[in-house]
Design goal:
The complex is a heterotrimer.
Chain A: E1 4-10, E2 13-19, H1 25-32, E3 51-54, E4 57-60, E5 73-75, H2 88-95, H3 105-118, H4 124-130, H5 142-159
Parallel strand pairs in A: 1-5
Antiparallel strand pairs in A: 1-2, 3-4, 3-5
Chain B: H1 23-28, E1 43-49, E2 55-61, H2 63-67, E3 71-75, E4 87-90, E5 93-96, H3 97-104, E6 109-110, E7 116-122, H4 125-134, E8 136-141, H5 148-152, E9 178-186, H6 189-195, E10 198-206, E11 218-223, E12 229-233, H7 238-248, E13 256-260, H8 276-286, E14 290-293, H9 296-302, E15 309-317, E16 323-335, H10 342-349, E17 358-366, H11 380-398, H12 402-409, H13 428-436, H14 439-442, E18 450-458, E19 463-471, E20 477-481, H15 489-501, E21 508-512, H16 529-556, E22 563-566, E23 569-572, E24 583-584, H17 585-590, H18 592-595, E25 600-607, E26 613-623, E27 630-640, H19 647-666, E28 697-702, H20 724-736, H21 747-757, H22 759-763
Parallel strand pairs in B: 1-14, 12-13, 16-17, 20-21, 27-28
Antiparallel strand pairs in B: 1-7, 2-6, 2-8, 3-7, 4-5, 9-17, 10-15, 11-12, 11-14, 15-16, 18-26, 19-20, 19-25, 22-23, 23-24, 26-27
Helix pairs in contact in B: 10-11, 11-20, 12-13, 15-16, 19-20
Chain C: E1 5-8, H1 12-21, E2 26-29, H2 35-40, E3 48-51, E4 61-64, E5 67-71, H3 76-80, H4 83-88, H5 90-97, H6 102-105, H7 110-115, H8 123-130, E6 133-137, E7 142-146, E8 151-153, E9 156-157, E10 164-170, E11 177-184, E12 195-204, E13 207-216, E14 223-224, H9 226-232, H10 239-252, H11 263-285
Parallel strand pairs in C: 1-3, 2-3
Antiparallel strand pairs in C: 4-5, 5-10, 6-7, 6-10, 8-9, 11-12, 12-13, 13-14
Helix pairs in contact in C: 5-8, 9-10, 10-11
The chains are: A alpha+beta, B alpha+beta, C alpha+beta.
């Protein structure tokens, strides 16, 4: 069977790849495009380490078939910083020690950005439920939640 | 909210919270974890695993797999030499090499579902999977045994037909699944119980739990025709990966170079080898690099979880709360091969307390489960759950405040433990007092909630570390160590180096070297890196300063003794030495060629004097009486941390450990079906806490410096997983009036207990 | 290397004919949150994967005279963002929004949740309580079936060869109606329901004039518990009526002991959740708004 030719946009860049019908978007990002910032922690949508957005919607890239990326806009952790400028969430995660081992961090950042783009005034409970699909085994979530709350507060301040 | 930043007034850098050196890499996806490494021409390796809990391997036919186009190598136990009956350290635990080779690849028998029986390397994953399906294994299925109590019965199916109980009294007459009996005794417990006003005796059980690191095991190995091997791997100890691979493959350690990737969590579970020897062997046979990754399913079924255990506790006390006798028996799952952490479980059981009469017995029991591995304070949470629950019963019976009761019995400097060690400067009393004075404990419990308290102890570890400090041409410094950084240790090491050198934190680059680029280091484990490797770094920097002072002396033409080091500069020791402008590292580096060449320092040591750590946790929770659902509303972890080098990462250890303990208490467990197969090998049904399950985790850092370390460092990583199990159970007991003796306190179990205690209501 | 075909259908008819052509080896790809997991685990090996997300009818929500038609492949997150639908059927929308994490919500659909035919599917008890009708397209004809008659056992549906689910239709709401869905899970998120209960009520003053109850994870399929509805209908939702309805739910249970719960526990919780869900649905019917977390 011939491979499927997919034309997509990844982090703003037009991108083409060939894939099998049963390959996941995560497989293609990691193994073919060298975008290894998205991590595979479970392969079943239970850990969120492979979080990306597809057409603005937060998804687990392990639960998206690669051919589904045809014509879509995919955003991964590699596209989060602008040039040499970290996104406020990235900066705050480092400043507030919101990571230990760092394997879950790309997923948390992508998911947190998706939340704050929709709601820059989330309650602690809303943040915790929004991020419930992102597992972290190191931090107990405390510093992650604090960092997201801080960035939300800064966003509201600068929106004034 | 956690503690505010506490700049330690004694220091410039220690106690501050700068950005971690690997921070930018980790928030941009640039950091490379094991599965992110690839080599041109690499093959994909896959493991065939046993579907049976216990079976004899009658034959393995790999011919069809070998014949499949794209398959480049197949290995079975025939490809690994037999190993001697020798015990070697594996992280904080001990393993027998004869067993290790059988665990990485089954030989005579498979001993648990998921046990590796063969591995293949092929040009892609799909072919590798196809090849696995073509391997024919002829099994003779044997009766299996999963639980400790059943495995200890005389008629239980035997895993190892020749296993005689070591240390049995009297000596074992016939083989059993009990690998070892250990005993710790102090004083006379019979006399102690005889005089006690109150004696409480209870039985507890806990289930096996997994470390649950989010990064699955992964490795990439490349063997050359000349016998040299390179390995990239996610591990808590790349020197141990080298050592195990050398032993298991009959190689010399110098032929193997292991580079640790960034490690995506370990918690003790990445101190042993699973894939690495297989990948090396497949690479040797195929002549190509071989990459192997475990699926999450593989991780649960085939890597080492922490054991479950049956624990019996008997405590006798006087009316005033003074504990006069204490006994504890721990029967612990080792998994398929001997070597559970029953030793530390026994030793830690009563280590928080000063008790005259103590008697502790432990049994190491094999059953048809994966071989257990270390998990954060291995063994201690289990015995501590039983002991701390019983102490809570005692507090209830004596109507004493649970912290006051513990203060009455708290270990202090000079306390002799049941395992023979006499404590030096420790912070148990200070930690109890800090917990008592915490904002949490001083706030009344909210209506509908109840409060539980528990304490915990861990030895902390020193062991072997090497470090080097190199000055660059511009005077900045690279600090090289050999312990994978699992939770921010690079930041702590750089802070100590900055303090010692008197230069800015950002002028120091801490790196973790591969096995060929720095001397030996014991694993990242035992809460040892900031303590022991920190000491090696401090010593390497002191060696560097000695070199720097010598260069200044040479520059000035004075004796080296005439130079002191202050604020990052060489200065004359006094006016008698002469008048010289201070020399910075940059100035000394610029002229290094004339004063003796490169300026480096190094240190290697076997570190002793690890300072024990104590923690006291406070948990407020509510129980939904109709459903048995527990909601943790407030949680505080207080701990003697020695000196907090980077307080944020110390807090992070306390918070993360506490949450793992909460998960252990509430919902985490290995569930086996009647066939001895794991029923929940995924994050869906192996339920680690998610963000919405938890409140913020408040921390109280109690700083009782460890006198054996120049900056007073104690290990901090392991203690915080110990108290939560009992803190949660004690809060549940005080909320419902029902004492739960079996973990986890999952809703069906708690609901059944609630109903059983209220027969009238349940009958409605 | 793989023999699997990936096809994007542009119309419902095209999807149905691709399905028919796949001769039993076709799998519909909506959100894929079950399909991809099952493929990875080797539980299914499709010959053709038919992506239906480019079919407008299957990814849209339309309202006709108070009745809502939800395209079977509409992502749960899109459903959750539909304010009018959420106002009309808060219980149904909440149930759909409980399927998996935020990430899964971006993909998972009510149609997929239904076709996966898990007895523990979160959306289904609420859809059963709501009286939802399933629209099915075959190679030649369309048909409809009440949602409670759609599944026939764990993982089994009543779809015939070449048939696909197109949409779910929720009936127009009488005034003073409310619905609710509650499930029990050990954690607060990321679990499969141990028990799920959907309740839909219409009130007249203090009296419940009609009720439907859907019960999940306690039998091979999601159940419509008519006895519970009967106990509630005509009552003032007083203790006696609630006891009778809760007992009817417990009596309807035919659960199993498994890693997620025991028979005893599930049977008990069915009653507990019926009471709680009824209270929320009644409040909503009376215009007292109650949101989830």
């Amino acid at each position: 069977m011939a491979k499927i030719h997919v034309e997509t946009t990844i982090n703003g860049a037009p991108t083409e790849f060939l894939c099998e019908a049963n390959q996941t978007l995560l497989d293609v990002l990691r193994d073919q495009l060298g975008l290894t910032g998205s991590k595979e922690g479970c392969g079943s949508g239970d850990c969120g380490a492979c979080s990306v957005t597809v057409d603005g919607r937060l998804v687990c890239s392990c639960l998206v078939l690669a051919p589904e990326a045809q014509g879509a806009k995919v955003e991964t952790i590699e596209g989060m910083a602008q040039g040499d400028k970290l996104h406020p969430l990235q900066k705050k995660f480092v400043e507030m020690a919101a990571l230990q081992c760092g394997i879950c961090t790309p997923g948390f950042l992508i998911a947190s950005r998706a939340l704050l783009e929709r709601n820059n005034n989330p309650t602690e409970t809303e943040i915790r439920y929004w991020l419930a699909g992102n597992l972290c085994r190191c931090t107990g979530y405390d510093k992650i939640i604090h960092a997201v709350m801080e960035v939300a507060a800064e966003m509201r301040e600068s929106a004034k | 909210m956690s503690n505010p930043p506490t700049n330690n007034p004694k220091y410039k850098w220690i106690g501050t919270r700068p950005d971690r050196p690997d921070g930018a890499d980790k928030v941009t996806g640039r950091a490379r974890f094991a599965a992110d490494f690839n080599l041109a021409g690499q093959l994909i390796g896959k493991v065939l695993r046993s579907p049976h809990a216990h079976a004899r391997i009658k034959s393995i036919d790999t011919s069809k797999a070998e014949a499949l186009a794209g398959v480049k190598a197949v290995v079975t136990s025939r490809d690994f030499p037999e190993q001697p009956d020798v015990i070697v350290p594996a992280g904080e635990m001990q393993v027998n090499l004869r067993d290790v080779t059988r665990n990485i690849m089954a030989r005579e028998k498979v001993l648990y579902e998921g046990h590796a029986v063969a591995a293949v390397a092929a040009t892609n994953e799909a072919i590798a999977k196809q090849a696995l399906a073509l391997i024919k294994v002829n099994y003779e299925v044997l009766p299996h045994v999963i639980d400790v109590a059943a495995a200890m019965k005389p008629n239980a199916p035997l895993l190892h037909e020749h296993l005689m109980t070591e240390g049995a009294k009297p000596a074992a007459a016939r083989p059993s699944n009990i690998a070892k009996r250990i005993e710790f005794a102090k004083g006379d417990t019979a006399a102690g119980f005889a005089k006690a006003d109150v004696v409480i005796e209870r039985d507890y059980t806990t289930q096996a739990v997994h470390q649950g690191y989010i990064e699955p095991h992964a490795t990439l190995a490349s063997a050359s025709e000349d016998g040299q091997v390179q390995i990239w791997s996610t591990t808590q100890g790349h020197f141990q990966v080298r050592g195990f691979c050398a032993r298991l493959l009959n190689m010399e350690t110098s032929q193997i170079r292991v580079t640790p990737s960034e490690i995506g969590g370990g918690f003790g579970g990445k101190t042993v080898v699973y894939l690495e020897p297989l990948a090396v062997r497949l690479s040797q046979k195929s002549g190509k690099p071989v990459k192997m990754t475990m699926s999450r399913d593989d991780v649960f079924r085939a890597s080492g979880p922490a054991p479950g255990a049956d624990v019996h506790v008997k405590i006798g006390a006087m009316k005033d709360g003074r504990i006069v006798a204490a006994e504890c028996t721990v029967a612990m799952q080792a998994g398929a091969f001997p070597g559970s952490p029953v030793g530390p479980a026994c030793m830690c059981s009563y280590a928080c307390y000063d008790i005259d009469n103590v008697f502790i017995v432990g049994y190491d029991v094999v059953s048809n489960r994966p071989k257990v591995a270390a998990y954060r304070a291995p063994g201690a949470p289990i015995s501590s759950f039983a002991v701390e629950s019983t102490i809570d019963l005692l507090a209830q019976q004596l109507k004493m405040d649970p912290i006051d009761l513990r203060l009455k019995n708290a270990a202090a400097k000079g306390t002799k433990t049941a395992y023979g060690v006499t404590f030096g400067t420790i912070g148990m009393v200070e930690t109890l007092e800090a917990a008592k004075n915490s904002p949490h404990y001083k706030t009344p419990v909210k209506p509908g909630f109840a409060r539980g308290v528990a304490a915990g102890f861990w030895f902390n570890v020193g062991a072997d570390s090497s470090a080097a400090a190199h000055v660059g041409e511009d005077g900045t410094v690279t600090v090289i160590s050999g312990n994978p950084d699992i939770g921010g240790s690079r930041a702590s090491l750089a802070l100590m180096a900055a303090e010692e050198l008197g230069i800015d934190y950002d002028k120091i680059r801490p790196v973790i070297a591969d096995t060929a680029s720095i001397g030996f280091n014991f694993v990242t484990g035992g809460s040892r890196v900031t303590f022991a490797t920190g000491l090696a770094v401090v010593n390497s920097v002191r060696d560097l300063i000695r070199d720097l002072k010598g260069r200044a002396a040479k520059t000035w033409g004075v004796d080296p003794e005439g130079v002191i080091w202050e604020n990052g500069m060489a200065k004359p020791a006094g006016s008698n030495v002469g008048t010289f402008e201070p020399l910075t590292i940059a100035q000394l580096a610029a002229t290094a060629g004339k004063t003796g060449g490169p300026i480096n320092g190094h240190a290697q040591l076997n570190v002793t004097g690890a300072g024990p750590g104590f923690g006291v946790h406070i948990c407020d929770l509510a129980v939904d009486a109709d459903t048995g659902i527990v909601t943790v509303g407030r949680y505080t972890a207080a701990q003697d941390v020695g000196t907090a080098i980077h307080p944020s990462y110390v807090e992070g250890q306390l918070q993360g450990g506490a949450v793992q303990g909460i998960g252990w208490a509430l919902n985490e467990e290995y569930i086996y079906n009647a066939q001895g197969r794991l029923a929940n090998p995924g994050f869906l049904d192996y339920r680690i806490p998610v963000a919405s399950d938890l409140p913020m985790i408040e921390t109280v850092l109690v700083e009782v410096p460890n006198p054996t370390h120049p900056y007073g460092v104690r290990g901090v990583g392991e203690v915080p997983i110990i108290p939560p199990l009992a803190a949660v159970a004690n809060a549940v007991a005080r909320s419902t009036g029902i004492r739960m003796y079996d973990l986890p306190l999952s809703p069906p179990k708690l609901s059944a207990a609630l109903d059983a205690a209220r027969p009238l209501m349940a009958a409605e | 290397m793989t023999d699997i075909l990936y096809k994007v259908a542009k119309t419902v008819r095209e999807a149905a004919s691709l399905m028919a052509a796949a001769k039993g080896k076709g799998r519909i790809l909506a959100g894929g949150t079950d399909l991809l997991v099952q493929m990875k685990a080797g539980m299914v090996a499709p010959g053709t994967i038919i992506d239906v997300k480019k079919i407008p009818e299957m990814v849209s929500i339309t309202e006709t005279k108070g009745s809502y038609r939800i395209g079977a492949a509409t992502p749960a997150a899109v459903i959750g963002e539909h304010k009018k639908l959420k106002k009309a059927w808060p219980g149904v929308v909440e149930a759909i929004n409980l399927i998996g994490s935020t990430q899964v919500q971006g993909r998972a659909s009510a149609g997929g949740n239904l076709c996966n035919a898990s007895p523990a599917a979160d959306s289904v008890p609420a859809l059963v309580a709501a009286g939802a009708i399933v629209t099915i397209q075959g190679p030649k004809t369309r048909r409809t079936v009440p949602v409670e008659k759609f599944t026939s056992g764990p993982g089994k549906t009543t779809l015939k060869a070449g048939e696909i689910v197109v949409s779910l239709t929720l009936p127009a709401r009488p005034k003073a109606s409310g619905d609710a869905y509650l499930r029990l899970i050990p954690r607060t998120e990321m679990d499969i329901a141990v028990v799920g209960v959907g309740v839909s009520l219409t009130m007249k003053g203090d009296t419940c004039v009609s009720a439907r109850v859907g019960l999940g994870a306690v039998a091979p399929t999601v159940l419509l518990v008519e006895a519970a509805a009967k106990a509630l209908t005509g009552s003032k939702l007083d203790a006696t009526a609630l006891d009778a309805a809760a007992n009817a739910c417990s009596a309807a249970c035919r659960p199993i002991d498994d890693k997620r719960g025991t028979i005893r526990y599930r049977t008990k919780i069915a009653g507990v959740l019926l009471r709680r869900a009824t209270a929320i649905a009644a409040d909503r019917a009376r215009g007292i708004s109650k949101q989830g977390h």
